[in-house]
Write a structure and sequence with these properties.
Structural class: alpha/beta
Distance between the termini: 74 Å
Order of helices and strands: EHHHHEHEHEHHEHEHEHHEHEHEHHH
Bound molecules: flavin-adenine dinucleotide
Strand order of the largest sheet: 2-3-5-6-7-8-9-10
Largest sheet: 8 strands, parallel, barrel
Family: Belongs to the proline oxidase family.
GO molecular function, one term: FAD binding
Number of domains: 1
Radius of gyration: 22 Å
CATH class: Alpha Beta
Function: Converts proline to delta-1-pyrroline-5-carboxylate.
Cofactor: FAD
Helix content: 40-55%
CATH architecture: Alpha-Beta Barrel
Number of helices: 17
Protein name: Proline dehydrogenase
CATH topology: TIM Barrel
Amino acid sequence: MASVLMPHTLRCFLSLRVMGAPPRKLTSERSGFAPIRSQNFRFPVPSAPLTFEDPQAFREKSLWELVRALGVFRLCSFPLSCLLHGTVLGKRGFSMVLRETEPEIDKSLRKMSSLGLRPMLAVPIEEDLGESTGEQRYDDNLASMLECVRMSHSNSWSKDPMMQLKITALVSPELCVKLTSLMKEQKYDLNFFVKAMDKEVVTFPGLSESENAHFLRGLCRLNQIGQASINKVRVLVDAEYTYMNTALSVITMAMMKKFNQEDAWIWNTYQCYLKESRDLLLNAIRLSVDESFCLGIKLVRGAYMDKERKLAGKEGRDDPIHQSWAQTNESYNGSLEIMLNLISQNPDRYKIIVATHNEESVRRTITQMDELQISRDGGLVCFGQLLGMCDHVSLTLAQQGFSVYKSVPYGSVDDTLPYLARRAQENRAVLQGIRKERDLLRRELWRRLQGKFSGSK
Ligand SMILES: Cc1cc2nc3c(=O)[nH]c(=O)nc-3n(C[C@H](O)[C@H](O)[C@H](O)COP(=O)(O)OP(=O)(O)OC[C@H]3O[C@@H](n4cnc5c(N)ncnc54)[C@H](O)[C@@H]3O)c2cc1C
């Protein structure tokens, strides 16, 4: 029987020196990414800070699209619970962002691509504790995800494609929770996960026979995703709740060890609202050095704050979330700086997507990219926002030549509505901040109407 436990905890990695070496000038060739438009490849030039105040960010949108976007904002002013129960929007209400057939999806995504934005498909399947479904459902989920990999790289809008993956769509959340508590005691050796992905029969200590069998099947499913996406699509694994994140991260690291030898195809997510997020990031960097794999990072603030806090309170644990938004911002900025410095020193090994709607974080990233001479569209540093959120930020960035991805839920309306409802609830803070986008849309609409009456453009 192969033992997968080692006598160290995950936390004992040494801290890394990630700053200090002189920045190196980067080009798209060195990054391994093809530029979006080679003739337009942009080298970094120190730029005036972006203000995201220009309504002409929406200049490529048609009049109808402006009116429709304002209509959506109007609907968003209704209480969230009405929207979620369908009393306002109904099933087709979200049809502005969802399409069910491939030609429909293709058309929407081509439009997005013509605006300079890249779609990042997210299969809207996830499970939390108590929602576990059977093995067949996980196999069906695998089929949907493999389809998503295919869609992501085989269309005219596919440029350096990325997609999101939730491990709890392929492995039961109960098992992830159990693995997380086992991993708190001892460190798991990634090689055993890799062997299991290669269909070797591995026995994971602490699991029952049926749990072990389910885990082996889950790892084989993840292996299929890795095999289908390597050299084609970057797979960004989502971070979820702290009670299962350790397992999700270790599984993701094992995928990185297997698939990221030459380039970062599998990425992990770091939630900066967590007090432990800096340690987790440094551990991952350390592991990528020790195990020789490339590291791709999705940096987020985190989406599950209310539930995490409620649960910690109920269980009498310390709150895992930073006490204030300011502390979360500090944590985000610090991790961002670590990654940008690391990228400037090792452009072949590290990549990041700055997944935020926060204008200050975006500006800070751009300033540091300029200082470190990291190219705008080389694919080492890109930006991510959710579909339908902060388009004024995404469009301005795209117009300035940065790589910008919009996270697009891709699936049937039935699967996608509950997913959107969860995202809407989790992103209340961002939804409350969309007033600026609405005002910019109004100003652009007004400018167009004035132009129509005065005969100018
Ligand atoms: C492409 C993409 C992928 C994503 N993937 C994931 C993922 O895998 N996992 C995940 O959890 N989230 C994910 N998110 C969601 C992301 O975490 C939310 O969009 C984000 O929390 C909102 O933060 P912001 O930086 O956009 O905006 P801001 O408005 O700057 O920040 C709001 C966030 O700050 C934090 N915060 C607010 N108040 C406080 C407080 N009092 N104390 C401490 N912290 C506070 C919370 O995280 C809150 O959501 C993803 C987002 C995008 C765009």
